Structures are given as structure tokens and as C-alpha cells.
Structures
1.
Amino acid sequence: MKKLFLIGIVILLLCGCEGEKNVESYISSDKALVSINYPVTNINILDDKISAYVNQTYYNFKKMKSTIKPELNISYTYKEINSEIVNVSIKTEIITDKTINKIKTFTYNKNNDKFLTMEDLVGDLEGFDYEIKKELLEKYQDADMEYLSNISYDYFTIDDDNLTLYFNPTEIKSKYEELIYLDIPLDSLKLLINIDEFEENDTYLSIKKRNISLDDKVVALTFDDGPSKYTEKILDVLKKYDACGTFFLIGNKVDFYRDVLKRMINEGSEIGNHSYDHKLLTRLSKKQFEEEINKTQDAIKKATGFTPLLFRPTYGGYTDLLKSYTDLKFVLWDVDSRDWQVKTKSKILQNVLPNVKSGSIILMHDNHEYSLNALNDIISNLKKQGYKFVTVSELLELKNLRENE
Ligand code: ZN
């Protein structure tokens, strides 16, 4: 008995110390356009700080006045620098009558339960400070010396190539709106910590083919704003009915759910692009829009080997000009579950089932549990009516074939 108890404790210690990492995601277009995405690392002290910061930012945002529809975008980067140190950045963009950009970063050492400062990274902060100010003046020639003398090195991220320092706009000059940043190549630095090389996983791809004939009744289920902790459960339901979906993913979350993405492809679902940070696209420049698309394409390709062909615009908002900036096919929907708004299974079923016809594209979301709760009933009901489930690409191909028949 005692032995069993001990084994139990060892097993608990082995698997219990760190749960699954995931991304918390809140997206809404009610009174304001809100896209909040941030990582849950399962390091309690770090998660508490991140969620407190995000909640405070959202609270402040809700009190802001604006003559245009206000928009809040909270996005993040997450990097395991080595087996002990995690680096998270939280970027905030607030668009009201003016635009505000802010950043906060957290670098945490799990081994000694400490947040790391720049001094912990570079040692001699004085020499570092001199070099950085020199480079900042080169890059931002109109920087104000008085502002510059007060800069701090609180915010930084580390990726495979660079240590990136961030400065909130007002640290350089009062009028800047964009975040100020400086990339410093890692090769040029002698850091006091080790940085693990990124391990490239073998990517693989085996797309399942379905037998569909020209006169089949077909329907495409689409899921926006994932992946999330609910996505695997959605895949379970799809699998149970031998159905499939098209998942329009938010790029910044992809690295957290690489296995889920592989499962989507292997089980016959399709992956589409839903931008990197879920900003309202019609407010972006061409360059910003391309960045939103390309970063997501790269992340999905890196995770699965598959490069998406489809794009779903955030909040359904786009212009012909935006469309002309990319080769990806813009995909909207004709049946809207309004799952994020109505929340209950019965209302979701009411919004979906009476409105489906052959060739329909149904809009749902997999960043919360609402559509998941209704999915069983949606699929079994449509199956009984003789519908076959196809991906959006298959649906478009079928439409093409039918038109050319
Ligand atoms: Zn969306």
C-alpha cells in the first residue's frame, strides 16, 4: 500500500508539474472590435502577471471614448529560450480616434522562480546602454535626446536570430505612435544565458480524399479564431461522424498547437488563414496586411508542411483592394451560427439548421465551447438529411465542376 502511494506521488510529480500550455482567446465585435490572444504557460506566477496585465488593459480600453468603432488588439509572442527560461511579449494596439501601441514583456526563469532583467542577460549594462543609444540615434534620427536619456531596458524578446529591444513610443519622442524597436543580432552579443537552438520538427502531410459525386448534397463546416483547447474536441466529433471542417486559424496561436494542426490535415480537414493577430484588415496598410497573411502562411507551413490556399477576413471585413494584395482565395459564409453571441446550443441550432442548403458554408468558432456543444446535433441532423461534409476547397472545386458540366 505504502509502495503504491509512493509510486502515485512519483507519477503525480512527473506529470503534474506542468499542464498543457494553451492560448486564451477572446474575440468579439459587439460594441467594439476586440481580439485578445495571450498564452497560458502553466507557470502560475507568470500566468497571473500576464492575465492581470491583459485584464487591466481591457478594462481601461472599455472606458475609452471614440467617434469611430474602437478596436483593441492584444497579441503575443512566446519563446522557450532554454529549458528553464520563458520569454513572453504582450503587444497592445488600441485604435480609437488615435492609435496607441504598447508592449510589455516577461522573461521568467522557472529554475529559480525569478523574472530576468536586461542586466541578467548582458551583465555590463553601462557599456550596453552606450551602444544601444548610439544605434537608436542612428535608426531614429529625430529622437529627442532628453527622452532618450530616460529609456529603460525592461522590454525585450529573443528569437532564433535577434535580441529585440522595445521602447514604448513616448520614451523616444512624444509624437511617435508606432512601437520603437531595435534588433540586435545574437551573434554580436555575449549573453549570460544559453539559448537553445530551435528544433525543426519533421513536417508531414497526408490529405485524406473523399469520394464526392457531382450531384451530392454537400456542406462545409468552417471554424474561425482557433486553434484553442476546444479544437481537439471538435476534431473528435468530426471524426466520430467521418466529417471534416475547414479551420481558419489565427497565426499567432499556431506554434502552441502544432500537433492539433497535424491532426486536422491527417484526418481530412483543411486549414485556412485568418490573419496573424486578428486585426480589422481594412485599417491596415498593404505592408501590414501582407505581414498578417505571410506570417500565418509561414507558421502553418512550418507546423504541417501544408500551405493554405484560403483566407477568411477578420470580422468578415474586406475591400477589393485588399483582395488584390494576395493570391489566397477569400472565403466568407452564407450560414452564420452567431455562436459567440447567442452562446446556447438551441439558439446555435436555430441559426444553422433551417438555413443550410446544398453548397452552404457554415460559420462557427473553435475558440470557445459554444459551437462544440452544438456540433454533434448539427452534423447528425444534416447527415440524416443526406448531406455530405466537404472542405471549402472541395466545395469550390465541386461548384467549378458543376458550372462547367
Ligand atoms: Zn475571426
2.
Amino acid sequence: MRFDVITLFPDLFTSFLKESILGRALSKGLVDIGFTDIRTFGRGPHRVTDDRPYGGGNGMVMKAGPILRALESIERIGKKSHVVLLTPQGQTFEQSVAWELSRQDQLILICGRYEGVDERVRLGHVDRELSIGDYVLSGGELGAVVVIDAVSRLIPGVLGGEKSNLEDSFEDGLLEYPHYTRPRVFHGMEVPPVLLSGDHEKIRLWRRAESIKRTLQSRPDLLKQARLNPEDKAILDRLQGK
Ligand code: ADE
């Protein structure tokens, strides 16, 4: 998978992308990331990339020209190349969207700044607008990092064990069960005895029940869409005192 990030601040990405799982995926050649600095495509001695909004109002708007010239400069890779604009006006980015995007050959991520991006970028050149949540950030760069991280984890070979992301939170619409590691007692809190029992079936059931319990407590909205089998429904009924 190739990611291309169109941004005014390519340096914001370097340390994050060097580390950990993403760093390894890059060095193994499973993902490849390029940066295109919008400033390079600004015109005039000051390489201007923003301007005042038509109609008045506060703040500055990113000009369409530099962004579109940056976009045109990027080599299209593979059959499926998708252009994404990071903006608070976009569709909320969630795990199902990450799976969809992971099937592309190339993702080109445009990071807006200031009050926003000239509407004509969105109208003619963007396949999808994504928001990482209902809050306003100073720019799309953090959103791009979030998308790159979540999508890369789904690419075969990026995580150590192929199966490990299938148990992650959200994969079946539920939050993940709690994890414990050594020591067995920490600040007076014991590891739940079932995890030490060696009984894999009991452990599986306990984890499933904890997963449903957490979802019920923290994100009851997710339960409406979750893929629950009859065993899960029985657990949920018990938790709800039915
Ligand atoms: N740019 C500013 N706020 C954003 C958000 N919530 N998601 C994605 N891009 C953004």
C-alpha cells in the first residue's frame, strides 16, 4: 500500500511514522509513504498557499491551485488510487472504513489547515472526505496519521500474527476484553483467576462476557450494530438482568 500525504507540514509526520509497527512495515516494504509539500506549489516569491475568504469572515482559506498542482504531481500507483480529504465535515472514520481503504493500492491524503480548503478541491478531485471525530483540529495532519496507522495494521504481514487484528476492539462491533500480564498481584489487585486456570473454553467465555460488559457500560450505542450470536445474547440478557 502506498500512502501519499499532501500537507504544509511534512515534518510533523517523521517521528511518528519511524516508530513501532508502522516503522517496521515501512522498512519491510509493506507500506510506503511519500510527502508532498503544498508550499512548493505556491506561486510567487512567497509561495502563497492561502488567501482571504470570498464573502468575508475570519481566517484564511487554502487556495485550490497549490493543492491541485500538488495532487497532479503525485504518481498514481496501482489500479485503485483513492483521494481522501481530511476535514471535520467528512464521514466519521471508523474500523469499517479502515477495512475499505485497506483494499486500495494507493491513498492520497490531503491535509487542510486554517478555516478550510477552497470548495473546488472537494468538488472535482476528492473521492472521500473523512473526519476522525466531532472536534476541530488545527489541521488534517493528525487525521492523516490516524488513517495511515489504522489502515496499515490491516495490511497482511504488518502485524506479527495474522490473526491479531481480528480480535481488536470494533472488529465485531464490541470493545475488547481486559488484558493482564505479570505480576500476578499489582498494588493489591489480582489477575482474575480464570486467566490462570489453563481452561481455554472458560477463558474464551470470560473474555466474551467482559467484552460485552464493557461495551454495555461504555458504548451501549455499539450493541445495536454488534454481531452477537445466541451465546452472546444470553450473556447480554444476564448482564441486563433479563
Ligand atoms: N481537520 C480539522 N479537524 C479535523 C477532524 N476532526 N478530522 C479530520 N481532519 C480535521
